[in-house]
Amino acid sequence: MVSTAVARRSSLPGFGLTMGLTLTWLSVIILIPLAGLFLKTLELSPEQFWNILTNPRTLNALKISFGLSFAAACVNLVMGTIVVWALVRYRFPGRRLFDAVVDIPFALPTAVAGVALTQLFAQKGWLGAPLAELGIKVAFTPIGIFVAMVFIGIPFVVRTVQPVLIDLDPEIEEAAASLGARRWHTVFRVILPSLAPALLTGFALAFARAVGEYGSVIFIAGNLPNVSEIAPLLIVIRLSEFRYADATAIAVIMLLASFLIILVVNRLQRWAQVRIPA
Amino acid sequence: MSTPSSFAAPANPMRAYASMADMTASAPAHPEPSDRARPLARSIDLRSEPGPVRFIIIVLAVSFLTIFVVLPLLVVFASAVSSGIGPYFAALAEPEAISAIKLTLLVAAISVSLNLVFGVLAAWAIAKFDFRGKTFLITLIDLPFSVSPVISGLVFVLLFGAQGYWGAWLQAHDIHVLFALPGIVLATIFVTFPFVARSLIPLMQEQGTHEEEAAISLGSSGLQTFFRVTLPNIKWGLLYGVLLCNARAMGEFGAVSVVSGHIRGETNTMPLLVEILYNEYQFVASFAIASLLAMLALITLIVKIVLERRLDEGQIPRDH
């Protein structure tokens, strides 16, 4: 089908073979399994589907997942901007090391991150003990979920905004300054708006990652139904109870949400390209 | 300008990761801000903040990264050796630990090599030819990175589970997919699917087809052209993709947890054993295994930085 669509560059061999194998492998590993998920949902009547989703425990899990992910992405947006600014604009001892450290949440297996954060914020932990004296309990509460979601979201904002800030034309800042704009005015009215598409992209990516996150969250969460139970955990629980329909319905809602986020991110990319012509 | 293109890349988490390659790789083409500002000494003042503001921003950035990233990493190693070196190595020598390490290595070896072959094939088709629907195909390849790990495991339960589409048939023929090696490998391949392809596609697109066309016109076969012309050009990019793919394959938790069945000594990978031991309050043993995975992550990061420099050196100069 596709192999006939070769327009140019046809002097190289292997298009039919590589494309055929690619599509086959893609179908076997990704497309058929995902299609199975949607087919399974079609076995449910709209009423059943609605009942599963409006079950208080499901609703609360979705609220916790989406609400705390949003809060964590907001923190990542603000702190990510500060981190990027320090890494790109200033020179300080250990700058390269801290630049490399930003990637750790990507590289560290989620289960390791989960037990580490729990240990750190547990009542006798390095940070948990001083926080407990202040009367703040992090581990095994919703705050713990929030902390884990901030952890895994860190690289997204930093790594999407960093190249844009490095490449920002110094002349616009100089122009603003030489026209008499105060520094904070230049930063908030000139620089941050031109970073906006990258900032929003990083925010959306961090949000999407936090919503689906499982490993780094479940250890520190406490996992109390309706209080600190995230949606991915509820899917696992429903599966272990052999309530496949419930698991599938929750999964489909989360999958649709992440497709929506991809769509938004793609729009943001196009907006960015219009704003910053290559 | 390469940055708008690398910025355009992150359309989902994976692309953000993949674009980190071009980002660091293109560093020499983009001098550090201070270098660029040097000829215009005046502009440094115009483009910076007052001293106290600078100080506060640096302190905030460093404290944030220390609390949220550095301390969790240190806790892993500190907890692993909290009872001394002896118990640490004893925990790693437990039969359960050894079987988890073996299983993790086996799963990673199978899934990384399959994804390596697929990644090269897909990159060849996508980067060297023009066809309609290319962007859509790339979006499909990226899909696993927008799917929750739990859902990546769930889809295979729905296919192969006792109540799944093919569960009854598999049971009748005594074939074990779920709660066995094939299921763990499938889930791992699913979550690591895009790494190699996504590292190669931008690189091979940038390199174009001239060298390959020359080789073909001089009488080389397709395979000869690939191994003698294309492969030397993409080797660092390929290693980069394999490195990230392997790190994720060995560290995957959510997807594998759903399909593994947690059979002790049989279907527990290292991340799953970390969970089990932790829930049994065997903290030293749990963190001992976790420390191996953390070392894997650190080595991956270091090799990644080295590879990014290599990619950078071999980079074809782009027009500005």
Structural account:
The complex is a heterodimer of chains A (278) and B (320). Chain A has 278 residues and is an all-alpha fold. In chain A, helix 6 packs parallel to helix 11 and helix 8 packs across helix 10. Chain A has 13 helices and no strands. Chain A has helices spanning 15-42, 46-54, 56-89, 95-101, 104-107, 110-121, 128-133, 142-167, 170-178, 183-212, 215-221, 231-240, 244-275. In chain A, 77% of the residues lie in helices and 0% in strands. The longest helix of chain A has 34 residues, at 56-89. Chain B contains 17 helices and no strands. Chain B has helices at residues 3-8, 13-25, 33-37, 41-46, 51-80, 85-93, 95-128, 134-142, 149-160, 167-172, 181-192, 194-207, 210-217, 222-251, 254-260, 270-279, 283-313. Chain B starts with a helix and ends in a 7-residue tail after the last helix. Chain B is globular, with a radius of gyration of 23 Å. Chain B is an all-alpha fold and 320 residues long. Helix content of chain B is 76%, strand content 0%. Residues 1-43 and 316-320 of chain B have low confidence and may be disordered. Classes of the chains: A mainly alpha (278), B mainly alpha (320). At the A-B interface, helix 1, helix 3, helix 4, helix 5 and helix 6 of A face helix 1, helix 2, helix 3, helix 5 and helix 7 of B.
Instruction: Extract low-pLDDT stretches of chain B.
Output: 1-43, 316-320
What's the β-strand tally of chain B? 0
Distance between the termini of chain B: 5 Å
Helix content of chain A: over 70%
By DSSP, the count of extended strands of chain A is 0
Main beta sheet of chain B: strand number and arrangement? none
Strand fraction band of chain A?
under 5%
Radius of gyration of chain B: 23 Å
Helix tally of chain B equals: 17
pLDDT under 50 segments of chain A (min length 5)?
1-9
Subunit organisation of the chains: heterodimer
pLDDT averaged residue by residue of chain B:
85
> Which structural class is indicated by helix and strand composition of chain A?
mainly alpha
Distance between the termini of chain A: 34 Å
- Please report which band the strand proportion of chain B falls in: under 5%, 5-15%, 15-25%, 25-35%, 35-45% or over 45%: under 5%
